[in-house]
Amino acid sequence: MNCQDVWPFLGAYLDGELDLVGSLDLEAHFERCPECARELRGLQDLSAAISGAPRYGAPGELRRRLGHHSRNSLRVAPWVFMAAALAVGGVLIGHYLPSRGADRFTKEVVEDHVRSLLADHLLDVPARQQIQPWFAGKLDYTPVLEGGPWRGFELAGARLDYLGGRAVAALVYRLGPHIVNIFVRPTPGDAERAPVSRVADGFHVVSWRAYGMDWWAVSDLSEAELEELAMCPCFMPPNRTLRLGERPTPKVD
Amino acid sequence: MRLARFEAVLLPHLDAAHNLARWLLGNSQDAEDAVQDSYVRALTYFDSFHGEDGRAWLLAIVRNTCYAWLRKHRSSPESAPSAREMELAPDLGQDPEVSHLQEVDRMNLQQCLESLPAEFREALVLREMEGMSYRQIARITEVPIGTVMSRLARGRRRLRQMLAPTERKETT
To answer: Which of A13, B110, B43, A15 is nearest to A1 (CA)?
Structure first.
């Protein structure tokens, strides 16, 4: 593979849109070619800079106008509903329920967790200090990891995983014999979301949104224990209160 | 029930909708109006939505609304040059001088992004700010995936060329 072959795919590589084989080919080339590696770094810097450009979230007033508290002021008036109803000619049962998308995603998170345990591919990079730089070359974002062990949870390492159609960071924590995978990826939404817990195939999945990231923690641990881990300041600003209030401290090994 | 489903599926993407409209239209008031229009349209056509990807579906409507708005309200669509003009600009390829963007002046970046042709700007906004996949961007902007890829590449190259002078000052 020479440089001319690499250039057209630099962007796709940066965006996580290349397949595994293509990515490996490019990575092999970056090892040999400082020029292309530098080009990639330039693109990564630019990408970071654009992500940091203003994202114009909706003003509160607009949100209020469109939100359910004032649904009538959407000025679509009943005729829109009538027109829509007439167009369809009756009531259709929706093909889609909001929870179904979430459930499918929960399932995917659990499948990734199970695969990581089965396939002997739990960790790509073991030591805490190496995690951030290791991700820097592979993802267009870097999860921030600070502080020591949290309430008995030890950061065991991290790996690259694939979730919802893109490469994501998976952080691996241990609590005694239990493994927790935390998947993290940037979210375009800037609002924070309190943790929500789901169950799939006997695993608990707790998801929340903070620091501009979406987080999913999955494990065979209890919901309460996962929420303990979610409260680690790495994952959630320390002043937030969880909706579940007081929790017994999990057993520390 | 229908309205509840509409809200549950589409309201979470309000920020994304507003961001895209703001970058396409260039000011907040127009963006707000376009977003409100878009939600009205989305509600009207909601029965044709079958739950595949609410965000992409909504953003396609927002984008169409914005372009319709631009056609209606602006005689000269934009001060930014068209993508075609950009295509004709010399392709500098790998220029070592633009290869190392370190500290980028935010204001400068914002201005450069605003001055890009809309085709490049929307692709970059959807990719970099909204984290959308090529497939989603292709769907929203109604072009093949290959075109998304080349618009992103050209948009990025163009941005780096525009930003390079500032950067050179800092590094030398």
So the answer is: A13
